[in-house]
Amino acid sequence: MSPISPTARLSDPRVQPDISYHPDEARWQARTAQRLTENSNLPKTPLPAGFPAKVDSPLVWEGKDWKSESHTGLHTGLASSTTFPLPTLGPVLRALSEELHNGRGFFVLRTIPIESYTRSDIVLLYVGISSHIAPLRGLQDANGGVLSHIKDLSATFTPDKIGGPAYTTDKQVFHTDQGADIVSLFALETAKEGGVSRIGSSWRVYNELAETRPDLVRKLAEPWDVDEFGKTPQGYTSRPLLYHHDDRIIIQYARRYFTGFQGLPRSPGIPPITEAQAEALDALHFLASRFSLGLNFQKGDIQFINNLSIFHARDAFRDDEKQQRHLLRLWLRDPILGWEIPSELKPLWERTFDVEPEEQTFALNPVIRDAVKGRRVDAKN
């Protein structure tokens, strides 16, 4: 793709930059070159007040650091470490929870023999195991839904009905989920080809930006207009994507909130992002990709990641009639080990975890979450 030319689009703040959900490395490099040509002092920009020049923690890692994968009757909503006791595995899971919150930030439980269980028993098993990691489950959908299915539904729904890549075979770019401390994924089936799960340390990305492009650190720490896709009267909320809070770095972002995706295009009336913001979005993705680790996710595996310190992504994939990628997802929080949440994010966390155990529902079959249902027709009104 040809480099970005210095057109009116680059200097007109009323126009959305040429950026889409799928990052384009050539455009990122061209945009970076253009902005550094216009202002060669950007790499000398002071970091925001209080932000560290470098963070040093087990949470700072790169994919190359890991040479093997050795790291790896009751209402279901009432499943807990008490009602779902695991005398042998339970203490191990609590130690792994400590590792999630204060260590490297991820682990995988390997190959649970799911063929031996019904779908409802699989859900109970998943919820029970996860309760030992973090007891609070977050709301992912209307009507108490705390369990999501990640599966290609493009054969059932047209693109205008799907507003998130989770329900396609499309690549998912590096991001964090919105409003959860821990993201857990349980593989019921893998793809025929592709679909590799990838994770990257956001702390490692931060160190790279703080050293080479502190101006982008400042940009990420400023308020951004986040598309709410019609969920609020104004249409968007404003908050930073990057925080230094309680001596921890937290990055919370998903690219589609600034570019749209298929049936959920960017809502009208929201101020366009700037060229600096567009560069920052690309920098987060491509740096996370550079430092990432690909996990050999197998059927029966459960992956847990610290959503406050780790980006995750997924390669595009191909299913066939016999083998179709299918994951279950939980959003979790531990009230004891959980990190202190910045004030700007607290309303989101409060909404996510404001669901009583008896009100929680667990869908046994895939549905498109209400938050990512296509609203292309509504967006035109």
From TrEMBL:
Record region (Disordered): 1-20
Keywords of the record: Oxidoreductase
Listed GO MF terms: oxidoreductase activity
Domain TauD/TfdA-like: 78-331
Keyword Oxidoreductase recorded: yes
Secretion signal span: none
PANTHER family: FAMILY OXIDOREDUCTASE, PUTATIVE (AFU_ORTHOLOGUE AFUA_4G13850)-RELATED (PTHR10696:SF54), GAMMA-BUTYROBETAINE HYDROXYLASE-RELATED (PTHR10696)
Protein name as it appears in the record: TauD/TfdA-like domain-containing protein
High-level lineage: Eukaryota, Fungi, Dikarya, Basidiomycota, Agaricomycotina
